Amino acid sequence: MKRFFLLIAFIALLAGSVARAQVPQQINYQAAARNAAGAPLTNKTIRLRLSIRQDAPDGTTHYSETRTVTTNALGMFSLAIGSGGASDVTGSMAAIPWHTGTKYLKTELDPDGGTTFTDLGSTQLVSVPYALSSADNQWQVNGLDISNKNAGNVGIGTVNPDPSALLDLKSDSRGLLLPRMSAGQRTALSQPATGLLVYQTEAPEGFYYNKGTPAAPEWLLLGGTSPQGPSGSIQSYYHAGTLPYPSSTLSFITKSQEITIQEGQTVFVTASRALGGYAAANELGIYPACQHVSGGGAIQPLGLGMFGLQVPANTRSTFSVNGVFKNLPAGTYHFGMAGVTTSPNWTNSEWGYTSVLVY
Predict the structure, then answer these.
(1) What's in the keyword line of the UniProt record (predicted)?
(2) How far is residue 153's CA from residue 162's CA, in Å, rounded to a whole number?
(3) How many structural domains compose the chain?
């Protein structure tokens, strides 16, 4: 049986893995078919099987196709791997991971246009000059992340980015839109980086950045000139119905209010609640208190309050506390009235009321 071989030349039309959607998913392939004596196979219909393999000539096949072509008077033919007209296609050119390892093109030929293929060998695919140039700014993939190797400045809307800016955006008709989320979504961010910036879409609405660490976030509202709370400077809430009864563990016994404060701000808290018992109740202590939201910190009562409170059986009395919190670290806190007692009889309670002023 005669042996046939190909003299091969390539022109690659593939770009980097990230930019593939913007370029043809094809490789130009041109060769001359000759027999073992070196004579060209002229004006002959031949059949080729071409496959792109990973890391070695016999490596994993990412893509394979079969094509029928006709040589010219010199035995030459041209085709585009990945273009229409192929048969027995397996894999996808768009799915080839060009950014990992090396790639080899294996060529097989049946000179009679059938399916009895002869292996003509494999050739490693290498970059053409423009692809080498584009690699200077190549995007690289790492799992679900992408990054750019460019060590210079990036300009969008300008060909001359400011040398002091890693990213320089210029436009007189559009702006920059950062991630937007609710307060709950912001505080639920896992390990937020120091300096992370987001926009909160609910009151107090605005840009927040993490002044703390990933392990202990301290979210601050940028540009806040007035006291910050859930919807304004002074927050007043009324809650009627069942609230936690005082117990032997210090806990909030009015509905606590979540407030975000900035460094240097002062917080005034006043809280009231009707408390009593169906049996005589005594030994109740109540305090203005706060609790840092991050990390589930302990309730911190002010060193003032009311102690040794008592009521006769079947009686409720309204008790109130107020206090000023100064020099708290910036962050988000719960404020309210906390209580603790050794008596189990404080079970006749109604409403609670908490007001917070931040200044």
Answers:
(1) Signal
(2) 8
(3) 3
The angle subtended at Cα 58 by Cα 52 and Cα 61, nearest 5°, is: 35
In sequence order, what E strands does 92-217 have? Answer: 103-110, 118-124, 139-142, 145-148, 154-156, 167-169, 180-181, 197-200, 206-210
Domain of residue 285 covers 234-358
Would you state the structure tokens that stand for residue 322, as one six-digit string?
């107020």
262, 340: one domain: yes
Q: Is residue 229 part of a domain?
A: no
Rounded to 5 degrees, φ, ψ at 282 are -150, -175
Is the same domain home to 49 and 84? yes
Provide the CATH number for the domain around residue 110: 2.60.40.10
Domain final residue, candidates 129, 146, 163:
129
Dihedrals phi, psi of 93, to nearest 5 degrees? -60, -35
Of residues 191, 233, 232, the one with CA closest to residue 212:
191
**pLDDT higher than threshold 60 for residue 234:** no
Distances (CA, A) of 152 to 39, 164, 167: 54, 10, 9
Q: What is the pLDDT of residues 162-221, one digit of tens each?
A: 988 888 999 999 999 999 999 889 989 999 999 999 999 987 788 998 988 999 888 888
